Amino acid sequence: MSENFETIAIRTQTERSSHKEHSTAIYLTSSYKFDDAEEMRALFANEKEGNVYSRYSNPNTSEFIEKMCLLEGAEDGFATATGMASIFTTFGAFLKSGDHIVSSRSVFGSTHQLLTNVFSKWGVTFDYADLDKPQDWEGLIKLNTKIIFVETPSNPGIDIIDLEFLAGLAKKHNVLFVVDNCFATPYLQQPIKLGAHISIHSATKYIDGQGRVLGGIILGSKDLITEVMNFARHSGPSLSPFNAWILSKSLETLAVRMDRHCENALKVAEYLEGHEQVKLVKYPFLKSHPQYEIAKKQMKQGGGIVTVVVKNGVEGARKFMDGLKMFSISANLADTRSIATHPATSTHSKLTEEQRLEVGIEQGTVRLSIGLEHIDDILKDIEGALNS
């Protein structure tokens, strides 16, 4: 098998059936037939590999997992129904009452809710650290710290931290290092190769890339994924076979899509940086980004998300978004279609104003997910909205 990303993503698939199909079939089955009673016993006893029940495994989810493992350099994985299911399952598998998490402050709104309102009820505590203050992280690690969790690039602040630095801290203090790699995808960033123990994706985003299905995946060593599977088999956050089939097929075009997303996003960021209606632009591969050198070191390209702060606060943001003609106003991102989101009143609305400001979300902040349309049309739409 080739070592090239694109070839692995396209050529990895399940064994062909007697029908000799060129494209993987969809295995829409909830259960499986056993040859005899002994085979059934052996499979349930984990003495033999095979499919038992689609809540546990399915040929389509297995293909998707195998591809993602190869692309990100992981030994094993478990696919879930959503990205948030992956985060919840990871926390649920490794945390117990009395444990502690050190997390990046800038995390997705639902992850914040898990930390503050869900796991806190079960006796798990946490401390937030800032991505732009790496000197503060080690001081927050306690004797009961079990996980270092980070989202980089962050949503929507596009802040970045050195993953090798955090991997060193995790090793020094013998804690689990978990990375939400959603914005980068395995094409742009491979946290496990940089020392992370677990890498998580919301496959709903760039892995699908067309706004069709929900999905998530947890990647790591065989030992760690065994712990994840033991929890997930009984809590049931499994990915559907149909969605797994969609996501596995989508991986075939991930590289070419990300190349165009990144190319378009960089041009948008460069255009916005010089606009008189813009207060601030954040994009990893802009030289003005505070962590530009780190981004260049650990990412292949800058990704497809540009965060812009327009002038005149929430009114300026609303005027800009309402002036967009081609962009979709949506809470999603990473679509072929360009999308604009106002985090303060949508994805991060459950945070207080103080909490939002701490992670760089102002009232004028707009998250732009730059799609695959022609760059001239994208820039024309942005220009018209800013000048309206």
From TrEMBL:
Single biological process term from Gene Ontology: 'de novo' L-methionine biosynthetic process
Keyword Translocase applies: no
EC number(s) on file: 2.5.1.-
Cofactor list: pyridoxal 5'-phosphate
Modified positions (N6-(pyridoxal phosphate)lysine) in chain numbering: K205
Top EC group: transferase
A matching Pfam family: Cys_Met_Meta_PP
Pathway(s) where this gene product acts: Amino-acid biosynthesis; L-methionine biosynthesis via de novo pathway; L-homocysteine from O-succinyl-L-homoserine: step 1/1
Record's catalysed reaction(s): O-succinyl-L-homoserine + hydrogen sulfide = L-homocysteine + succinate
Family to which this protein belongs: Belongs to the trans-sulfuration enzymes family. MetZ subfamily.
Function text: Catalyzes the formation of L-homocysteine from O-succinyl-L-homoserine (OSHS) and hydrogen sulfide.
Protein name per UniProt: O-succinylhomoserine sulfhydrylase
